[in-house]
Here is the input.
Amino acid sequence: MDEIIKNLETLEENWMHKTKCEKIEEIREALIDMANDMWDRNIGGDEPQIVIQKVNELMKKLKESVVEG
Here is the structure.
């Protein structure tokens, strides 16, 4: 019985980690889309590639913190 509970807890942890990574990826894609949309509308700000680079750096740090935590 203890082994079953342990396996269930491991499955839950793996699922939560996967879910967090999927959410992080969704956030990254949304930010990139927003940067491109703002550029297309000439709202200004940095060029999309600069924004995308910053978003990717932020998402990498966020993913690392999820893996560590």
User: Anything to note?
Assistant: The longest helix spans residues 2-40.
